[in-house]
Amino acid sequence: MLLFLVLEVVAIMMLAKSHTYQRSKIINSSSSVAGYFFTFRANFADFFTLQHTNELLVKENAALRHKLEVYRKFEYPVDTLNAKPDFDYIPARVISNTVHLRNNYIIINKGSRQGIAKDMGIMSSSGVAGIVTGVTENYSIAISLLHKYANISIQFKHTDQLANVTWSGPDFRIGNIVDIPTYVNMKHGDTLLTSGNSLIFPEGIIVGTIDEPLESEAGDMNAATMLFATDFNKLKSVFVIKNNNKFELNSLNKLRPDE
After folding, report:
1. Which 3 state secondary structure label does DSSP give 3?
2. Where are the beta strands (DSSP E) in 42-149?
3. How far apart are CA 94 and CA 123, in angstroms?
4. Is 160 left (phi over 0), alpha (psi -120 to 50) or beta?
5. In sequence order, which residues have a C-beta less than 8 Å from that of residue 226 and are 6 or more positions away?
6. Is-contact 144 105, C-beta < 8 A?
7. Whole-angstrom Cα distance, residue 110 to residue 19?
8. CB atoms within 10 A of CB 55
9. Does domain 86-244 have CATH number 2.40.10.340?
10. Could you tell me the sign of the dihedral formed by the alpha carbons of 148, 154, 157, 161, in that order?
11. Nearest-CA neighbor of 132 among 200, 220, 55?
12. What does the pLDDT profile of the chain (259 residues) look like in tens digits?
């Protein structure tokens, strides 16, 4: 086989030397092959360069969110030199994610070793994504908003009125808004944000927008369908939200008198 390849190369070289037309065709063919090879190599290199660039952007985004949390405190009389943000944002990569089950989960490549703990929120660059339910040393699992036990408090951006978001399936793009007071005026396209009434998510993270308002026939609480801000079908890079005041706030809750 090797001898055959050597003879083929020698024959091609002799043909190229003796005939101008054949030489030009061989050169053109070689150029095409070389061009394809170098284009493939460049695209291959660009793929890893873009991946590295994306990881850097995610880290920079997390750093900017950290600074924003500090700047938010400047609205109030605090010691700005020693100001500590209420929330930290830890960048992570999604390594497993489901969207077509009744109860869907997200697995990320960060765990207790990187500061992740149970009951921390997860968000994408577009909006809320889920809540951490279990951790190992280097990995964590979370329920996404596409889960029957996912229930988060939201507020209407234009009125600050409160409601709750759930998911009944099967469409991963559409959620349900429940417990909307009947006096709240809502329309298609209204923006929905996290309320900040839990220790998991800070106030003001986008959750989605109103798709279709649904009035209650009984006249009690209205409902609506919503479009999630996060595209769960292409979830890749996320941030895990760490509440730096969680321990202190939990201590206060324990001091509340029993009713």
Report:
1. helix
2. 87-97, 105-108, 121-123, 128-135, 140-144
3. 11
4. left
5. 165, 174, 175, 176, 177, 192, 207, 208, 209, 210, 211
6. yes
7. 64
8. 13
9. yes
10. positive
11. 200
12. 544 544 454 455 555 455 554 444 444 444 344 444 444 554 555 555 555 556 556 555 655 555 455 445 445 555 555 567 889 999 999 999 999 999 999 999 999 999 999 999 999 999 999 999 999 999 999 999 999 999 999 999 999 999 999 999 999 999 999 999 999 999 999 999 999 998 899 999 999 999 999 988 777 899 999 999 999 999 999 999 999 998 888 888 777 776 5
Where are the extended beta strands (E) located within the chain?
87-97, 105-108, 121-123, 128-135, 140-144, 152-156, 162-166, 174-181, 191-194, 206-214, 221-228, 237-243
**CA separation for the pair 131, 241 (Å, rounded):** 9
Structural tokens at position 119:
């009951």
Q: Are 174 and 188 a contacting pair, CB within 8 Å?
A: no
Identity of the residue numbered 238: V
Are 193 and 163 contacting, i.e. CB atoms less than 8 angstroms apart? no
Distance CA 192, CA 171 (A): 19
